[in-house]
Specification:
- The chain is 22% helix and 42% strand.
- The protein is an alpha+beta fold.
- The chain has two domains: 3-68, Alpha-Beta Plaits (2-Layer Sandwich); 82-159, Alpha-Beta Plaits (2-Layer Sandwich), CATH 3.30.70.260.
- The strands form two sheets. Strands 2-3-1-4 form a four-stranded antiparallel sheet, with helices on one face. The chain has a four-stranded antiparallel sheet with strand order 6-7-5-8, with helices on one face.
- A hairpin with a 2-residue loop joins strand 2 and strand 3.
- It comes from Planobispora longispora.
- Residues 5-80, 85-158 form the ACT domain.
- Pfam families: ACT_6.
Length: 165
C-alpha cells in the first residue's frame, strides 16, 4: 500500500478539518500521522496517509499536495534517546528559531515537534526534542542558555513526561 505525505493549506473556517479528513476516508485511505494548526488565520495540515489520496479537486478552496514517501518509522516505536521539552520566550526578532534549532542540531538533537506564536511583541517557542543518550545535557543546557541570552530570550529545558496512550 502506498504512503503519501499530504499538505493542506487554506483559509480557516468551521468544518475544514472534517471536510479534508472525510474526503481522505471516502477514498479508502487511512491517516497514520497528522499535525494540524492555525497560522495567521489559515489552517495548515500535514498528514501521512496510506492508500490512494483523492485528487486535489476533492478539496475545493484548499491548496493540497501529495508526495509519495517511504515509511521511516523505527521498528518498535519511537527512536531511542532522551525526550525533552524546550520553551523560549522573549521579544520578537529574526533568528530565534534558527539559533535555537542550530544549537540543538550541534548536539545531534532532533526537534520532533515545534510551535511558535507571536503574542503582541512576545515571541514564544515550544519544542519537543529528542537527544542521543550520550549527550552531556548539562553542557547543552548551558549552551542553550547562552544562545537565548544573546537573543534576549528566557529558556526552560526539562525532561519530557512519559506519554501514556
Amino acid at each position: 500500500m502506498s504512503l503519501s505525505a499530504v499538505t493542506v493549506l487554506g483559509a480557516d473556517r468551521p468544518g475544514v478539518i472534517a471536510e479534508v479528513t472525510s474526503a481522505i476516508t471516502r477514498s479508502g485511505a487511512n491517516i497514520e500521522d497528522s499535525a494540524m494548526t492555525l497560522l495567521g488565520g489559515h489552517v495548515a495540515m500535514m498528514l501521512l496517509v496510506s492508500g490512494e489520496v483523492p485528487p486535489a479537486s476533492a478539496f475545493p478552496g484548499l491548496t493540497v499536495t501529495a508526495t509519495e514517501v517511504t515509511s521511516r518509522r523505527p521498528p518498535g516505536g519511537d527512536a531511542p534517546g532522551l525526550g525533552y521539552v524546550l520553551t523560549a520566550h522573549g521579544p520578537d526578532r529574526p533568528g530565534i528559531v534558527s539559533e535555537i534549532s542550530g544549537a540543538l542540531a550541534a548536539a545531534s538533537g532532533v526537534i520532533t515537534g515545534m510551535t511558535t506564536r507571536l503574542c503582541g511583541r512576545l515571541y514564544v517557542l515550544i519544542a519537543d526534542v529528542r537527544l542521543p543518550e550520550a549527550v552531556d545535557v548539562a553542557a547543552l543546557m548551558r549552551h542553550l542558555s547562552a544562545v537565548c541570552a544573546g537573543l534576549g530570550c528566557e529558556i526552560t529545558f526539562r525532561p519530557a513526561e512519559a506519554e501514556v496512550l
